[in-house]
UniProtKB/TrEMBL annotation, chains A, B:
Binding site for Zn(2+): C81, C84, C118, C121
One of the Pfam families matching this protein, by short name: FUR
Native source species: Methylacidimicrobium cyclopophantes
Annotated cofactor note: Binds 1 zinc ion per subunit. Binds 1 Mn(2+) or Fe(2+) ion per subunit.
Record-given protein name: Zinc uptake regulation protein
Binding annotation for Fe cation: H75, H110
One annotated GO biological process: negative regulation of DNA-templated transcription
GO molecular function: DNA-binding transcription factor activity; transcription cis-regulatory region binding; zinc ion binding
Amino acid sequence: MERVTQQKLAIAAVLEAAESPLTPPEILTRAAKLVPRLGVATVYRALRSLRKDKKIVVVEIPGEPPRYETATRGHHHHFFCNDCRKVFEVPECPAKLAELAPPEFQVQDHEIILYGKCPDCRTRRNVSAAD
Amino acid sequence: MERVTQQKLAIAAVLEAAESPLTPPEILTRAAKLVPRLGVATVYRALRSLRKDKKIVVVEIPGEPPRYETATRGHHHHFFCNDCRKVFEVPECPAKLAELAPPEFQVQDHEIILYGKCPDCRTRRNVSAAD
DNA sequence: GTTGCTGCAAAAAGTTTGCAGGACG
DNA sequence: CGTCCTGCAAACTTTTTGCAGCAAC
């Protein structure tokens, strides 16, 4: 039913190669190098299709546009740098999160976002302020 | 500088009285009962102003429109019911969250969202399935 | 009496949809 | 070769902005 097209392959490849989650415009720009006449609509349609197949996941940071990343990296969370506004992966995951909710609630999943300064931005600040 | 207007008062009152975070259209509908000729633009402008004053906070659940709630409830997190799509408060907050990130990262804040079934939806399911 | 705030409408920004032609199987 | 997918443009949705009049201080 679902066809394997150059566009979907290109978009999946772009996300696979990405160092961090990408926004639709970023995906369009990068994938257009592989499929020149690529349009926005196709990007959105491909993202929906890939998401339905559980090949990618959405990363939503409050106040930020939705970003997409491959599902091949497994369960993890994200760190958002308040300075450079980049998204980083956080591999750790606390086990007891479900206990946060009152017992009448049935917890099936969770999402954690950490905010702060990434190593680069922290160093930059330290260097200019300290030495 | 910032003026105290009927519109802002009405919107703040609506959020104060709300049982859960509200979307801009919901806020407009409720506040319009207090200030009849209220428009969307004013709601958005008031929300930005109240947010700047730290009187309210945004609650963003992936795939859901932004919601707003009063800041008077202090630090807490949210539970999103996958069935009825309502948002609930979670008072607990794990202390050691900052340790999740690699040590080079400076964690300043965090956000947790739990997903699952709220008591009502869980009961409904249990009743029809079990007894 | 100033000047910021409001309501309305128009504009932006982001995402979806309709349609004719092209690529996949 | 049929039909799903694509590219383009138009439609939608959500949020922002411009402007004349009004209300807060």
